[in-house]
What does this fold into?
Amino acid sequence: MTRYAALCLVAGTLACHGKADAPLSPQGFIGTELTVPVSKPSATFTDSRGLPFRFDSATHDKVVLVFFGYTNCPDICPVHLANLAAVLDKMPDSVQTHVAVVFITTDPARDTPAVLDKWVHGFDPGFIGLTASDSVIAAAQRDAGEVATVKGAPDATGAYPVGHAAQVIAYTRDGVGRVAYAPGTRQRDWAHDLPLLVAFPQPQAPSH
Amino acid sequence: MQWWCAATGFPWTWTWQWYPGVHLLLILIAIGWWQLGRVQRWSRHPFGWFAVAWLTLLATLDWPIGKLGAGYLASVHTGQFLLLTLLVGPAIIRSIPPDGWLTIAPEGSTRRRFLRTMARPLPGLLTYTALVITTHFPAVVDTAMTSQLGSLSIDLAWLTAGLVLWWPIAAPRGFVALGVWGTIGYIFGATIGPTIPAMMMVFSDWPIYQLYELAPRVWVHFTANQDLKLAGLGMKMFGDLPLWGTAIAVFFRGNTMRGELVDG
It folds into this structure.
């Protein structure tokens, strides 16, 4: 950020604006704290290599950023994933190693493991792509407090849109989903919040 | 329907879209140029220069470049800036012959004084640099490009910047008194202004423009960060090349861009 601040000074009155100037949540996040925290999905999915992925145990002690979307998504999905990839790349190892980005498809018919693998890893080789049956995905969305998927009508080519929740849910390392990130969350917002999410909840001081 | 290319937030589509405002402006420019030559009884019509200016304007402002630059890719936005300032600006100046400029701004007129002032290095440099930096402020870009009027204003500001930049170099002799070294110094000065936004785009930790950071992607794995770095590098590299080329040409051959002014 130092370089950016210096460049802004060079340019005079350049607007170094962003959500970082907006009021923070009670715990200091730029993201929106959920009024009712949610628990992790407990189901078993199939990852992009075709292997079983038990969500809660596979993401134990990680900050998990969960996004429900689909690879044919023309707007929100690639922007969220690209921004997360760019920010994580600049985070110190102490943050990177504790964060898992999980993309759960809402369009399992088209998003086969192979399709997911290519798409998700195009953003970051460390991202996790998951698929499952419609019922498992619907249950996971309910667990995460997300709205259900709505499949649109196909066009002449057979392509169809999929309506889905557009926010990323952040689970802290204790396995509780606490913060939501709406579309429009900028990279600098993620850069502000990711270290806080990794450090939350604050470790208890050892009692003597 | 949109009259002028502006950011909409909708997913990009390669389906052609009509922007009547762009075509209307271009028709008016063509009619205006032709009428000006007819009324002023120009000794010659520099069709070549006008065609370069007009066709580049069409390509820059119309679909797809106009729409991509307005709401999707910062690199295309920068490409528009370079085309308007480095190609359209000088081509418009040369599309009016020296006797035409004399008629537009006769000796002793306010217009003549104004154009002579703008042909001096300092007013030219200050105006050009101010226009370039202002129109690249993140707050200005993020605000202006989301409305048709704002987007039109940015395009017109860049067109003006191109005219201001090249007037001391390409104006007829009766308006300009810059020598070879003065012209070269002026050109060097003109490369400084765009360096500031270019550096910000390349070296800032996070994307400086919210508009392009959050825009629907044109190619899914071509990220906003890559786009912005490309924009910054393009602005510096492709922006400086024509200017340095002009400086070298001026050094070896004198300023052949300048038209002779036919007095009386």
